[in-house]
Amino acid sequence: MNPISVQDTLVYVMVSISAVDRKMEEKEMLRIGNIVKILPIFTGYSSDQLVNAAKTCRDILQDNEGLDTVLGFAAALPRNLQETAYSLAAEVAAADLSVSAEEVRLLQMLRNRLGLDKLTCAALELAARARHQSE
Question: Across all residues in the chain, what is the average pLDDT?
Fold first, then answer.
């Protein structure tokens, strides 16, 4: 198997948080697409690559150990991108302004696997929530 790219890994994290409650909301999918369009880490990453990564992630998640596999990919990210992975997960979870218990649990699992501290994660979650507020 080919090594997983950093960009694909970040997409896997975002797709996983969207799918964990078994409801991939349109707002979450749109947010993933917008993230890929604007963040510098995704420069040169095509919409075809995004679609392929999302499909591959879906296939991985159908396996009994699929979520653990995705968390393992995230843990293998360079240290400077692990907070980015968590931030993107929080961003997608907050996109529909309703974070499910399953999404909260996955964020906790991701935080633990990445070895991130609770205060940093709380700040990233609050920032994500704030970006999705409207009047």
Answer: 89
